[in-house]
Amino acid sequence: MLKYDKLHYKTNNKENRGNMYSSNILKQIFSHSTEEYPFECCGVVMESTASDEQTVFRCKNIQNEIHKADPEKNPRDAHTAYSISPVDLLKIHRMMHKQHYRLKAIYHSHPDNKAYFSKEDYSFAALNDEPTYPGTDYIIVSIAKKRVEETVCFSWDSKYKKFSGRTISITY
Length: 172
Ligand SMILES: [Zn+2]
Fold this sequence. Notes:
- The protein is of the alpha+beta class.
- It is about 25% helix and about 30% strand.
- The protein is built from 5 helices and 8 strands, in the order ααββααβαβββββ.
- The longest helix is centred in the N-terminal third of the chain and has 14 residues, at about 25-35.
- It is globular and about 45 Å long.
- The chain binds zinc ion.
- The site of zinc ion has 5 residues, from strand 3.
């Protein structure tokens, strides 16, 4: 069995109508953000092309290793940046091509910072004013003192050729 199978949850369609992400999915993202605090966490939401079922797949943030290897070239560590490990990128690609999942969202946290789309976030998400991964959202979690403050989901607006954000939250 593959590792991410244990993170497999079915989304509640009724709940999903207003919010593209179920509370179950958001809760998993929030606990990941809390566990990694004071570092940025990163991961993806995969969606089955057959059933629309969503799965959270946690990724390893290797930014501290990148920073340590060459601090001059990479001044930011995992407090303020993230890099998805190549092993996890490979797993994501396998899920997409072998198990028929689509990359629904890429999430990461901003410890002690607002849930804004930074310049770095933008350069990762777009290339020549076109989205790097069309149809993929970017979920950013603002977390302070291990508490989730705000979560914003940024989606590509093809009309205005930019990402626009809307606040999302767990519904009880
Ligand atoms: Zn960011």
